[in-house]
Amino acid sequence: MEERRLVLVTGGSGYIAGFCIARLMREGWRVRATVRSLRRSEAVRASLSTLVRSSSGLSFVAADLDRDAGWADAAAGCDHVLHIASPLPSGRTSEEELVRPARDGALRVLAAAQAAGVKRVVMTSSIAAVAYGRGLRRGPFTEADWTDETNLADTSAYERSKTIAERAAWTWVTERGGNLELATINPGLVLGPLLSRDYAISIDVVKRLLDGSLPGLPAFGWPLVDVRDIADLHLRAMTDPKAAGERFIAAGSFYWMADVARTLRSRRPELAKRVPTRRLPDWLLKLAGFVEPMLRDRLFELGKKRTFSSDKARALLGWSPRPNDETIVDTADSLAALEII
């Protein structure tokens, strides 16, 4: 077994990062996490208390994807890096606000990791970098596929940012990485239990069904994946020699919003009293898109079913994700326990 030493986790206050940090600490690793402000460190420790008994092996460094400061200190002495930090759309959709920090931040992390003698960087990408800009097809998308970020009709700024950042990372490692190894994880829509009331935007898929804020079921869908399984795959990709130089899709079965709603009604009827049953017409969503910028940016996804194969992660790394329904139920239970719904 590899000696348990120091791992840098970027974006330490994020959803996926929290579960990765907890998993690392439970397995005996020391963890250094980056946060944009050290004022966030105590909140991170508090949220992790539900998963780990002690966070004494956890330290923090302030570093921002948009700035050089802090990254050399963050990577110093680390054996591995989980680069999870990335900008997410939050009412903003411009290329400048998403693409630049995603791409430049990844390159800052890689440069700092190489200078510090890090063995391997595992970068969290997305299926957004795999299957968009190419239209639909009958078979599943695989790690050999790349999103065409030049197709503005079948991508948003988010898909373009994830694609450009991941491509830039692979190019940098090929041209300048030396002995530094890179692996990337490409998750689907990430659900699962919450660490605190400060939840990830992906959780809104379940929350808005349960709290009655959706008048109907829009024709949106995604391949789902549990945050605990994403953390598991990050650690497998970090330590398994076979993962070096590889991409790994982390996505389960495709579920329409109606499938998520059906699971909630059948498995948690006491929580699902406000879950809608009727389909929301496409024309109504398009009309709403005129006043909701984030919805407008996703309208190109209406009615599109994109499926993915995670066979590579299963076969090469022994990854075994849990069923979608279990993840959906655990998400709902967590929202209820935290009194978010």
Describe this structure in words.
The structure is a single chain. This protein has 341 residues and is an alpha/beta fold. The chain has 12 helices and 10 strands. It has helices at 15-26, 41-48, 71-75, 95-115, 157-176, 204-210, 227-239, 257-267, 282-288, 293-298, 311-317, 324-337; strands spanning 6-9, 30-35, 58-62, 80-83, 120-124, 181-187, 189-191, 221-226, 247-250, 254-256. A 7-stranded parallel beta sheet has the order 3-2-1-4-5-6-9, with helices on both faces. Strands 7-8-10 form a 3-stranded mixed beta sheet. Helix 4 packs parallel to helix 5 and helix 6 packs across helix 8 (257-267). It is globular, with a radius of gyration of 19 Å. 46% of the residues are buried.
Mean pLDDT, nearest integer? 94
Name the strands of the widest sheet in spatial order. 3-2-1-4-5-6-9
Order of H and E elements: EHEHEHEHEHEEHEHEEHHHHH
Question: What class do helices, strands and sheet pairing give?
Answer: alpha/beta
Ends distance: 43 Å
Question: How many H/I helical runs?
Answer: 12
Beta-strand residue fraction: 5-15%
What's the number of extended β-strand segments?
10
The outline comes out as: globular
Low-confidence segments:
none
Rg over CA atoms, rounded to whole Å, is 19 Å
Fraction of residues in helices?
Answer: 25-40%
Taking the sheet with the most strands, its summary is: 7 strands, parallel
In short:
The protein is α/β, with parallel strands linked by helices and 341 residues long. It has twelve helices and ten strands.
